[in-house]
Amino acid sequence: LALGAAFATAAEKPGWIAKSDVNARLVLEALARFGPEGAGRLGIEGLDEQILDLKPGVVLRTLAAQREIVATLEARGKQETDEVVRQDVGILVRSLEDRIASDELDTIFRYLTRFPANVAFIGLYGCWQRGVTTASPTVSKWAVDNTALLRALTT
User: Fold this and answer.
1) Which among 10, 46, 63, 155 counts the fewest CB atoms within 10 Å?
2) How far is CA 88 from CA 19, 26, 72, 93, 144, in A?
3) CA distances from 131 to 107, 124, 135, 154 (A)
4) Rounded to whole angstroms, how far apart are CA atoms 107 and 137?
5) Longest Cα pair distance anywhere in the chain, in angstroms?
6) Nearest to 53, CA basis, from 30, 28, 29, 34
């Protein structure tokens, strides 16, 4: 009888846990869209037929989804009256912000190490951005002609 009561109590979550679970589920479902294979282990159902998103722009789409979740959670946190839930939302937001920063750095370093010439390329952009002219008119012309590309790769 005592064991049955313990299971019944565990199944009934306090209100703050239920609210926190809803917020955590928002994060898990959004991230599962990009990597559905592991979503089942996290308790997200219904993605068995989907596969890893490897379409062009997946990194930018993932970052955009993460930023959207951060904005949603920040709005929820401002409206939340329960201090424990608000604290939990803050933890989720900080965790996502850390993940965004990590994903951005990972992308930059993979780009730089895959194409060593890009290190020089971004260095040239840094000079161009600060108004430093290079000794080579060809390089300067190339930087001016490719302004949009330089901005896209370094922002």
Assistant:
1) 155
2) 10, 13, 14, 9, 48
3) 27, 11, 13, 16
4) 31
5) 86
6) 34
Cα dihedral sign for 62, 63, 69, 72? Answer: negative
| Closest listed residue to residue 89, CA positions, set 75, 102, 103, 68 | 75
d(CA 20, CA 3): 27
With beta carbons less than 8 A apart as the criterion, state whether 104 and 63 touch. yes
Spatial neighbors of 27 by CB under 8 A, at least 6 apart, are 69, 73, 92, 96
For 90-148, what is each residue's pLDDT tens digit?
A: 999 999 999 988 888 887 777 666 665 655 665 665 555 555 554 455 555 555 555 55
pTM of the model: 0.63
